[in-house]
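Hi support team,

I've been running sequence recovery on a batch of backbones for a student project. Most finish fine, but this one hangs at about 90% for roughly twenty minutes before it completes. I'm not sure whether the input is malformed or the queue is just slow. I've pasted the structure tokens below so you can try to reproduce it. Let me know if you need the job ID as well.

Thanks,
M.K.
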């Protein structure tokens, strides 16, 4: 008990000494003492019990008295917290300051110790920086000095002179300001702020680009997202998104409408962060504690309806407070969800970049474990799953926090009966634990099955032409269906456990309510409107987080499995030893291999090359020959460092490599390959590579796009484009791997004379060839057999002393009948006619007359089949399937996400509208606000969906482009490394990642834009309902009705937002269903079997083929490729079809198999028009050896006979010279190839 007598004015000393500077602190102390004592005495009347306020000995010791005695706790607490002179306000400030001090101090200690050096710890960047540090430091010292003086005065004089909360708040303010001032003075790098481009990374994966990157470019003149420069209000309200959504409402959005992402969100910057520390980027957003003000306000509102208000207009104040709380809750939650989604996007981008960078340096053994289909899955599926993780990760701990706070409120409402709620929650979580482990197992098995199925699908699509030629489509379709059934088994197991989890957690709120009220009944806890609806409102607010737990668990499990797979890939072995070094002209021996052995799988016991000794002099021409499988191509790979060296020493300088694979892009892009255009050199390159007429015949000249694996070029054209690419680089060393295998003899001779012996006359050349006619002019010939170099000598020496070489030359003579190979050695200059020169100039001039469209192939793939001219091969129609591996990502969404999104959307919508219905029944006046609000909400949602759907469609198409680029890069990895194009291709990949990230970024930002506006409207409805209740006379509504109305109203926000979120999620995911459906609607070929037109079982008996005025074109609006051919091939005759590259030879063969249907005329085989019978009946009766060699993953037996129709026949293997090779295998025909 304290003495409440106030000191009279005459009691205050009036001595002049009080006014002296020395006595000023005593005067201040006296005034503060009077204020504190008056504050203390005014709160506690004599004899007032402490139990009715906020008791506790610690509050007594800090504040001098209990707080909020005989007052409504909620109203008093609000007043105390926001009054800067009260003890509660000081305690809040002290707590915040101490939390800031602890976090900042720990961060500084960890960072300073981690930096490893205290030198140059402090850095001042500008006078303004110095002034800010000085100001904060001085202010902190002032606060600290005042606090210490007040504390000393209390201890020296009277303990009640300054209560502890006065000097504690000053001390905490001083310490925090001083620490902040110190933190501002420390160098940014010590605190972990990255300085772009300042670090160097040793490992290839951890090495930034050496060239100018996206992050280094100036954004001036580029349409950058308004988010990057938005103000605080625009950021908080998503106002910066209005222009894009308006454009999307007025017209369908296109990729060009997407502003570029800000520098922070671009893949390159995120990749650099990833390189520095994989898991350092973490976010600690504000959680949803603001929602728990709502039950407390509800309790106060019910007390007002009972006539227990503490002041006259408390009802209006509570209605206003409810509106403010709901608006603050909406702002915080929307920013939280948006920023976690943004973090997920950044994680996804950096993982996509890391995966691409990793595949550029993947070793040969690692490629055997990680196929191209799997790597595609890592980017299109796994990285996306991990990108969803940050959004759900924070919900794991915030849900726990919300449950704990809810339990505290429940304890306040129903006392110890809360234990029943806790018991039910614990039982629910424990019951879910074993299911979570099963889910993890099933998810892992599902992803493994998906990889196998995707690999089979990719293999089938890549080799679809071969499948059609051999009529194997049905068999491979059944094979994929079997794999899909195995995948479906694990999918069903995973989804059933997930459904059980959903049922368990969705029913838990009902179980919690029943158990709690039953416990209240047993324990005789009094229940009234106040505590019952406080309980109900609290439970309904945490109901949505509880019901989201199954989704969260599923997402976390999927992310964990995906993360494990990606980590395993990123840890895979790389091409560690860099054998290629910078070339110097004065180097006499650019390639030196000394007693080396090489192995594809890094196993010394399984060598592909052994005991290799090779020294190549500058300018020397070396030919490599030998039987098939002798190791010729492997030797070139060894010189490039593409195969693991198990022993010996190797030194190889940078070389240009002619590979057996190719990349997509235009013809010009493939020739320049990142180099700048030199018109003269470019023209000479085209002439040397015999590409003049080919470019003339292509529809857009050298701007014609090349499809995947060059599907729209003939074999000879592919080879010559690659030769042109190598020649244009003007390197010093050239490795040529059988460059003349797909061209006719005349073209091969021209290429050899003009290209190898002419353009490369002063270059170092290693040429793999089977054409022995060219060997006499080489300085040295390597003869290889079984992975060894058996002889190395000039042509004449080998011919005289090496029996193996003599056999090779004689076998070639027997085949082609050439008698004098020595004459080939003379270098015959090829005459380039004036006509050809004019043709190339005319071809280039036509490009300007007929500009190529930006998406030549895509338009043809989606709308029509084929291309113009004889050079566009008949299998370009299948490029749409091959060029969209993204179907795996869409199918994953359809399998895992769409079913639950559909169910959750319906249930959430029913829940939201039932809450709105209850609110309308109880307070029908709210309908005047609800009906317009619902109409506006529907209009807003439609306004949003017009843009959101297009954004998701653009996201799908850009993801396809990203996957296509990745697939091409995997196929052309050796070429890219040989031409030192890793940085350029990586930069292109980063650009595609950003293009794909943009629509996704704007999509989830648009979702938050919509929900924030809906939440604001709901807050208006709820506050208006509360205002109506407060406006009506007391007793108009019973406390029960008031409690029910407001409890449902408070949960309306959560349920309505959840409903909109689920609907938007479903609408976005339906886009994947649309994309999968597009594949199903692709126009098919003719029927496989026509029952009424089936040929006889032994057809064709004779084999007479008759062509009658056969005309072929690849599109309806394109010119004819075959112009009315009429001829007859008698049965049993052997017919040779010859002609220059692109003359229509392959087209004629394709017409026989109906890969392209005749535009006119007929093809008759043994009196049957082939267009009248089914495709399977036709193709299964014809045999063909395709131009491109094709192998499938599996055993040797499976590759020889995929359908399993024939028995083992040794004579077949012997005739194909495979018998010895198969017998050397450990398992013979059952050996598995990779």
């Amino acid at each position: 008990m304290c003495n409440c007598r106030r000191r009279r004015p005459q009691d205050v000393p009036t001595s002049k000494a009080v006014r002296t500077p020395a006595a000023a602190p005593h005067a201040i102390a006296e005034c503060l003492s009077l204020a504190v004592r008056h504050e203390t005495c005014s709160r506690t009347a004599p004899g007032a019990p402490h139990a009715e306020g906020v008791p506790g000995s610690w509050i007594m010791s800090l504040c001098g008295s209990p707080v909020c005695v005989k007052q409504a706790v909620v109203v008093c607490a609000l007043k105390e917290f926001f009054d800067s002179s009260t003890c509660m306000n000081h305690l809040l400030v002290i707590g915040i300051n101490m939390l800031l001090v602890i976090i900042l101090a720990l961060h500084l200690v960890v960072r300073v110790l981690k930096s490893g050096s205290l030198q140059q710890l402090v850095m001042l960047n500008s006078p303004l920086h110095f002034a800010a540090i000085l100001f904060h430091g001085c202010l902190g010292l002032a606060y600290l000095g005042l606090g210490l003086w007040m504390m000393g005065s209390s201890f020296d004089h009277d303990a009640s002179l300054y209560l502890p909360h006065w000097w504690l708040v000053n001390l905490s303010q001083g310490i925090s300001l001083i620490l902040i001032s110190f933190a501002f003075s420390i160098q940014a790098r010590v605190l972990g702020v990255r300085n772009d481009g300042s670090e160097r990374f040793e490992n290839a994966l951890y090495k930034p680009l050496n060239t100018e990157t996206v992050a280094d470019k100036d954004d001036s003149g580029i349409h950058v997202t308004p988010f990057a420069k938005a103000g605080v209000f625009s950021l908080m309200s998503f106002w910066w998104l209005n222009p894009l959504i308006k454009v999307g409402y007025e017209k369908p959005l296109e990729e060009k409408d997407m502003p570029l992402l800000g520098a922070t969100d671009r893949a390159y910057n995120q990749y650099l962060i990833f390189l520095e520390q994989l898991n350092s980027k973490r976010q600690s957003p504000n959680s949803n504690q603001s929602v728990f003000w709502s039950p407390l306000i509800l309790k106060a509102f019910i007390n007002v309806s009972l006539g227990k208000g503490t002041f006259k207009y408390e009802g209006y104040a509570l209605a206003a407070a409810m509106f403010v709380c709901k608006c603050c809750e909406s702002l915080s939650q929307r920013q939280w969800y948006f920023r976690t989604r943004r973090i997920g996007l950044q994680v996804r981008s950096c993982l996509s970049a890391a995966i691409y960078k990793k595949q550029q340096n993947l070793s040969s053994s690692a490629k055997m474990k990680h196929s191209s289909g799997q790597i595609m899955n890592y980017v299109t599926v796994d990285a996306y799953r991990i990108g969803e993780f940050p959004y759900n990760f924070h919900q794991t701990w915030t849900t726990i926090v919300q449950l704990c706070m809810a339990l505290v409120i429940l304890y306040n409402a129903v006392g110890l009966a809360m234990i029943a709620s806790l018991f039910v929650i614990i039982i629910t979580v424990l019951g879910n634990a074993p299911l979570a482990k099963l889910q993890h197992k099933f998810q892992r098995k599902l992803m493994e099955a998906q990889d196998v199925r995707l690999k089979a699908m990719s293999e089938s699509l890549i080799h679809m032409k071969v499948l059609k030629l051999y009529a194997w489509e049905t068999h491979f379709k059944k094979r994929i269906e079997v794999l899909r059934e195995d995948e479906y088994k694990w999918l069903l197991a995973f989804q059933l456990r997930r459904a059980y989890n959903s049922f368990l957690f969705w029913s838990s709120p009902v179980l919690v309510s029943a158990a709690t009220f039953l416990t209240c009944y047993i324990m005789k806890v009094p229940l009234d409107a106040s505590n019952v609806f406080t309980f109900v409102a609290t439970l309904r607010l945490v109901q949505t987080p509880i019901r989201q737990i199954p989704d969260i668990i599923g997402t976390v499990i999927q992310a964990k499995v995906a993360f494990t797979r990606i980590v395993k890939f990123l840890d895979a072995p790389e091409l560690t030893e860099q054998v290629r070094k910078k070339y110097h002209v004065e180097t006499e021996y650019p390639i030196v291999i000394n007693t080396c052995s090489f192995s594809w799988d890094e196993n010394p016991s399984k060598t592909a090359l052994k005991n290799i000794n090779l020294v190549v002099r500058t300018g020397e021409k070396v030919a490599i020959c030998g039987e098939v499988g002798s190791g010729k191509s492997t030797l070139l790979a060894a010189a490039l460092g593409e195969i693991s060296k198990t022993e010996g020493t190797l030194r190889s300088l940078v070389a240009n490599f002619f590979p057996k694979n190719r990349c997509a892009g235009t013809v010009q892009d493939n020739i320049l390959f990142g180099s700048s255009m030199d018109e003269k050199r470019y023209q000479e390159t085209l002439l040397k590579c015999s590409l003049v007429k080919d470019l003339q015949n292509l529809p857009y000249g050298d701007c014609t796009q090349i499809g995947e694996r060059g599907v729209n070029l003939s074999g000879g054209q592919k080879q010559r484009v690659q030769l042109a690419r190598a020649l244009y680089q003007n390197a010093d060393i050239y490795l040529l791997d059988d460059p003349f295998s797909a061209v006719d003899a005349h073209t091969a001779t021209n290429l050899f004379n003009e290209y190898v012996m002419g353009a490369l006359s002063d270059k170092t050349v290693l040429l793999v060839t089977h054409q022995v006619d060219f060997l006499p002019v080489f300085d040295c010939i390597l003869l290889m057999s079984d992975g060894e170099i058996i002889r190395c000598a000039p042509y004449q020496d080998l011919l005289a002393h090496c029996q193996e070489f003599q056999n090779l030359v004689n076998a070639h003579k027997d085949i082609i009948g050439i008698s004098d190979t020595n004459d080939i050695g003379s270098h015959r200059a090829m005459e380039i006619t004036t006509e050809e020169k004019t043709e190339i100039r005319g071809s280039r001039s036509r490009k300007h007359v007929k500009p190529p469209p930006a998406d030549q192939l895509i338009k043809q793939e989606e709308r029509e089949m084929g291309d113009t001219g004889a050079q566009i091969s008949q299998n370009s129609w299948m490029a749409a399937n091959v060029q969209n591996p993204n179907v795996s990502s869409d199918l994953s969404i359809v399998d895992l996400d769409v079913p639950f999104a559909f169910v959750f959307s319906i249930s959430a919508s029913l829940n939201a509208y039932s809450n709105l219905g209850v609110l309308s029944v109880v307070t029908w006046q709210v309908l005047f606000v609800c009906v317009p609000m619902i109409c506006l909400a529907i209009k807003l949602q439609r306004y949003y969906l017009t843009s959101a759907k297009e954004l998701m469609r653009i996201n799908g198409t850009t993801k396809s482009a990203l996957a296509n680029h990745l697939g091409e890069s995997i196929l052309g990895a050796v070429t890219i490394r040989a031409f030192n194009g890793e940085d350029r291709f990586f930069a292109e990949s980063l650009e595609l990642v950003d293009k794909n990230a943009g629509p996704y970024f704007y999509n989830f930002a648009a979702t938050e834009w919509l929900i924030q506006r809906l939440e604001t409207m709901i807050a208006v409805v709820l506050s208006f309902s509360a205002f109506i209740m407060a406006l009506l006379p007391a007793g108009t509504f019973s406390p029960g009705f008031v409690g029910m109305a407001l409890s449902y109203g408070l949960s309306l926000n959560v349920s309505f937002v959840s409903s909109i979120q689920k609907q938007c999620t479903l609408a976005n995911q339906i886009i994947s269903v649309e994309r999968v459906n597009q594949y199903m609607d692709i126009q098919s070929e003719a029927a496989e079997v026509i029952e009424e037109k089936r040929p006889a079982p032994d057809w064709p008996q004779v084999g007479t083929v008759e062509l009658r005025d056969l005309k072929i074109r690849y599109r309806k609006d394109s010119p004819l490729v075959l112009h009315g051919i009429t001829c007859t091939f008698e049965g049993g005759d052997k017919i040779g079809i010859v002609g220059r590259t692109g003359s229509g030879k392959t087209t004629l063969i394709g017409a026989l198999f109906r890969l392209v249907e005749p535009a006119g005329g007929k093809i008759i085989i043994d009196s049957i028009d082939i267009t009248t019978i089914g495709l399977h009946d036709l193709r299964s009766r014809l045999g063909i050896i395709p131009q491109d060699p094709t192998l499938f993953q599996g055993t040797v037996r499976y590759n020889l006979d995929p359908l399993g129709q024939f028995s083992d026949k040794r004579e077949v293997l012997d005739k194909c010279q495979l018998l010895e090779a198969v017998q050397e295998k450990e398992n013979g025909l059952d050996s598995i190839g990779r």
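--
Follow-up from support: It reproduced on our side and the slowdown came from queue contention, not your input. The longest helix spans residues 473-523. No action needed from you.
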